[in-house]
Amino acid sequence: MHFLELCDVLGEPHPASEDSSGATYTFEKGGTTVEGKQGFADVWKRGYFGWEYKGKHKDLNVAYQQLLKYREDLENPPLLVVCDLELFEVHTNFTGTAKQVYRFSLDDLLRNHPTADCKLPPLEVLRAVFTDPARLRPDRSAADVTEMAAAEFATLADSLRARGVDPQRAAHFLMRLLFCLFAEDIGLLPPKLFSVLLERTRHRPADFKTRLAQLFAAMATGGAFGADDIAHFNGDLFTDAEVFDLSAEDIETLLRVSKLDWSAIEPAIFGTLFERSLDPDKRSQLGAHYTSRDDILLIVEPVLMAPLRRRWVEVRAKAEKLLERPKPGKAAGKKLQIRLRSLLLGFVDELSHLRVLDPACGSGNFLYVALKSLLDLWKEVSVFGASHGLAHLLPYQVNPAQLYGIEINVYAQELASVVVWIGYIQWLHDNGFGVPPPPILQRLHNIRRMDAVLARDAHGKPVEPEWPDADFIIGNPPFLGGKRLRTGLGDAYVEALFHLYADRVPPEADLVTYWFEKARGLVESKRAKRVGLLATQSIRAGANLKVLQRIKESGDIFMAWSDRPWVLDGAAVRVSMIGFDDGSERERMLNGVPAKNINADLSAALDFSGARRLPENREIAFQGPVKVGPFDIDDQTAKAMLVKPNPNGRPNSDVIKPTINGSDITRRSRQEWTIDFGELDEQSAALYEAPFEYVKANVKPVRERNRDRQRREAWWRLGRSGGDLKKAKSGKQRIVLTPRVAKHRLFTWADAETVPDTRVYAFARDDDYFFGVLQSRVHEIWSLKTCSWHGVGNDPTYNTRTCFDPFPFPWPPGKEPKDDQRVGTIADAAKKLVEKRDAWLNPAGASAAELKKRTLTNLYNQRPQWLEDAHRALDKAVLAAYGWPEGLSDIDILERLLALNRERAGASGVGS
Questions:
Q1: Helices (H), 136-284
Q2: What angle do CA 679, 683, 688 make, to 5 degrees?
Q3: Which of 45, 307, 380, 825 has CB atoms 3.0–4.6 Å from 877's, for a disulfide?
Q4: Is it true that the peptide bond before 114 is cis, omega within 30 degrees of 0?
Q5: Residue of 265, 273, 269, 263 lying closest to 293 (CA atoms)
Q6: Residue among 296, 342, 293 at smallest CA distance from 319
Q7: What pLDDT does 142 receive?
Q8: Do residues 241 and 217 touch, judged by C-beta distance below 8 A?
Q9: What is the H or E stretch that residue 736 is in?
Q10: Are 12 and 20 in contact (CB under 8 A)?
Q11: Binning pLDDT at 50, 70 and 90, where does residue 329 land?
Q12: What's residue 240's pLDDT?
């Protein structure tokens, strides 16, 4: 009667008049809870609301919890409304948004003004319930609320640290505060208890400290706090009642954040954002990008959930087949129920006993997403069982004790447990399951603080740390390039790591590969079933590739994203995602589409991971020397030094050389030089007075802090002198250069005296034929297939190990037939291409502004017809030299190159 009168007041049709069938708008819409109870929403309108009534002054939270339990049967309406005839609560139920409640009374309806509990006029809210639910959609997403909360807590962390509080103890204290805010809004603490405490003591910090300690003590064991009873929480978070002094400004900050809806925070990003707030070393990342739940699901869904969903489809099909049978007599019906119960409980038992390990769990975001996904599937099974008379699947519920984690960072490790528990409690609340039994926060000893890849025994000897057995291993191990291991981890650690994994992980491999190898070993020994890990996309090539090849040897890769955008420490990067097992999985997915096979280099077609380095290509391609210190000088400084005399009578041009980096090639030359003493001893170098004194003043202070003894003591030398390159280019007038990272694969000539930057590759050949083959489509296709990719722009990254060393030239380098017309045709086409490019780059009479725009990158972005024609002539000549026809596709060319590589490698008898 109340609802019909409300319809009349609002001018809305009654359910029966709008939908006489009751299919979309009806009273008493039935639904089944997971306990097997039949529930009814008092009123339901598809796509608008579910409505539950209670008697006057009854607990409306009970009504709301009822709606939550069967909201799936109500088709998840955007609004859930509860009413006791005088008080209304409209709860938003939009996916991905912070929950919001509009609360108002009949008196508020008459006044029709916004109130503290209803930010819109109540009449507007009711009209929106019936006609436009989207009008009530919260402005803030759950992610927005989480970001705001993290930013405010960062100011509290800064305040505590400024007063000398130990950062770890401060972080633990702040975790308690944020849990209190969450517990209040989720209903674990009495309503408004913490907010009222803040309000009443906002100007009396000493009183706040005293009462907060009392509250923490009550939460540790359960007990009284003033007139309120407090539940037993503990779980290590409230083991003691340590409280730090907060200023009035700090309490104002807490009061401000208490007005956020903490029940709506997003656990998938909560840990990352609060770790940045609480950990001083990550404070600068606050406000930067973070990894979202959807990103994490790219690993969790195919690795963890896909086999479980397939299993559920099988179990459900068997259950439905049992239910299709004609209704038997009483005894037979009981047997049917027993069989059905055994079938469903068997699967639920599997779900509730499987173990998930994240061996680099950080602040727990992967573990939380895994837990939520498992809980959602458990609920689906439970609802199915309840709808067919099986009401007691609850004792077999998925829970946080099934999650295992390893983390070395103290802030992240403690926060991971908090994230998991907040996520679990939030899921229970949002799905109508109440709260866990006391103590509400169980200790999560499964999330351990330790090094995941290197430990030491009682005698200090390096040993492999023991990982817990797990059915599934997922996570995002730390990214650190092989060449940066010593800088990031120290020589002693790296030497121990190399020794421990000597036969399994190449020394040049990235740090992340040690997690892959550890996980592979667990799969091989049957201590884990499936693994899904992230890596930098460089795992597809170079020394890293060996680790993926071992995975293919002992099992197989069933899922991969070869190149995806990701967020690392707040920065956008490119990653590879890899799922593997012992070879049991029959389905393959590469880059989101089905594949018959996934190679070790994360390709599906030709397997280039088996391409071998050819001896014939040795001693030609070199990385530019590593400059450890500011050896580069500008043009003006260099020219001033070049004219100065020396006591040895030698010119400074012996040691001052032009230098070229990648941007000099792709853009315009900076006209810079470098001081390169090569292998000269200190006394001989000092005879080049001006450059030596410059290096002494500018480089020596930097090198004296270097941990490498040789670089410290031989401070006047570059770092790695590039002696092999100097030897190879001896007697040549020019060399070929290409940038390591570039949008277009460009090759250019440089004077042989040039010192290339470390991110430039030099080729010790000075003939146009060799240049032409490198700049041809044939070599470009090969290099794009075998390179890695770099940065947000995802630019191709050339490296000699995979792009040049295995590349089969038309003839082995140095064995080209001198009088063969095909060699001359390539040389002529290459020479013409370079001449035309140079003419375009430096036209006569061009202004400085015009020249600035004329770069090789801009030229190849525009790709005018004359450039196309020049490349077409070159490509035709190169294909003819191989003896291949024109018109070959990229795949055809790659197939022929790979076959030629294997033929040459086989003839040489040299492996990879």
A1: 142-162, 167-186, 193-200, 205-221, 248-258, 267-278
A2: 80
A3: 825
A4: no
A5: 269
A6: 342
A7: 72
A8: yes
A9: strand 734-739
A10: no
A11: low
A12: 82
Q: Residue 635 contacts by C-beta under 8 Å, 6 or more apart in sequence?
A: 671, 672, 673
Q: Which of 214, 219, 224 is nearest to 234 (CA)?
A: 219
Nearest to 67 by CA among 33, 24, 101: 33
Helix (H) or strand (E) segment spanning residue 689: helix 689-698
> Alpha-carbon distance 522 to 470, whole Å?
9
Query: How many Å apart are CA 83 and CA 364, to the nearest integer?
Result: 38
Q: What is the pLDDT of residues 597-652, one digit of tens each?
A: 999 989 887 788 778 999 999 999 999 999 999 999 999 999 999 999 999 999 99
Of 604 and 588, the structure prediction assigns the larger pLDDT to 588
Residues whose CB falls within 8 Å of the CB of residue 152, separated by 6 or more in sequence, listed in order: 253, 256, 257
List of E strands, 408-549:
447-449, 455-456, 462-463, 472-475, 530-536
Residue 437 CA to residue 439 CA, distance in Å, equals 6
- Please enumerate in sequence order all residues whose Cβ is within 8 A of that of 755, keeping only pairs 6 or more positions apart, or say none: 624, 625, 657, 658, 659, 660, 674, 676, 722
Structure-token pair, residue 292: 């979202």
Task: Say if strands 455-456 and 447-449 run parallel, antiparallel, or are unpaired.
Answer: unpaired
Which two three-digit tokens encode residue 237?
């978070």
From the list 369, 431, 148, the residue with the least C-alpha distance to 262 is: 148
**Rounded mean pLDDT of 4-11?**
90
**Model pTM?**
0.74
Instruction: Report how far residue 237's alpha carbon sits from residue 446's, in angstroms, rounded to the nearest whole number.
Output: 15
C-alpha dihedral (756, 757, 763, 769), degrees to nearest 10: -70
Whether residue 874 contacts residue 772, with contact meaning beta carbons closer than 8 Å, is answered with yes
Q: 3-state DSSP call for residue 675?
A: strand
Neighbours of 835 (CB within 10 A): 11
CA nearest neighbour of 788 among 562, 622, 568, 580? 562
Which tens digit of pLDDT belongs to each residue from 189-223? 998 999 999 999 999 999 999 999 999 999 999 99
CB atoms within 10 A of CB 462: 17
**Residue with structure tokens 């995975």?**
551
The CA distance from 45 to 51, in Å, is 9
The mean-pLDDT minimum among 142-151, 229-238, 397-406, 666-675 falls in 142-151
Among 880, 76, 848, 732, which residue's Cα sits nearest to residue 431? 76
Instruction: Tell me which residue of 442, 332, 325, 341 sits closest to 389, measured CA to CA.
Output: 341
Listed in sequence order, the DSSP H helices in 714-813 are: 723-728, 768-774, 777-786
Rounded to whole angstroms, how far apart are CA atoms 86 and 145?
31
Q: What are phi and psi of 115, to 5 degrees?
A: -130, 180
Task: Report whether pLDDT(856) > 90.
Answer: yes
What is the spatial distance between Cα 283 and Cα 569, in angstroms, rounded to a whole number?
11
Q: 631 by DSSP, 3-state: which?
A: coil
* Residues 6+ positions from 874 with CB-CB distance below 8 Å: 772, 775, 776, 826, 829, 830, 833
Amino acid occupying residue 22: G
**874-892: per-residue pLDDT in tens?**
999 999 999 999 989 898 9
Judged against a pLDDT cut of 90, whether residue 262 lies above it is answered with no
Phi then psi dihedrals of residue 48, to 5 deg: -125, -65
Question: β-pairing, 87-92 with 101-105?
Answer: antiparallel
For residue 35, give Cα distances in angstroms to 307, 334, 386, 427. Answer: 26, 19, 6, 16
Tokens of 541: 């090539």
Contact 188, 425 (CB under 8 A): yes
> One-letter amino acid identity for 349?
D
What is the C-alpha to C-alpha distance for residues 301 and 298, in angstroms, rounded to an integer?
Answer: 6
R_g over Cα of the chain: 34
Q: Where are the beta strands (DSSP E) in 548-680?
A: 556-568, 571-581, 589-590, 593-594, 621-623, 632-633, 656-660, 673-675
Nearest CA-CA partner of 641 in 654, 628, 630, 629? 654
In contact, 76 and 41? CB cutoff 8 Å: no
- In DSSP terms, 455 is beta-bridged to 463
Mean pLDDT computed over 551-579: 84
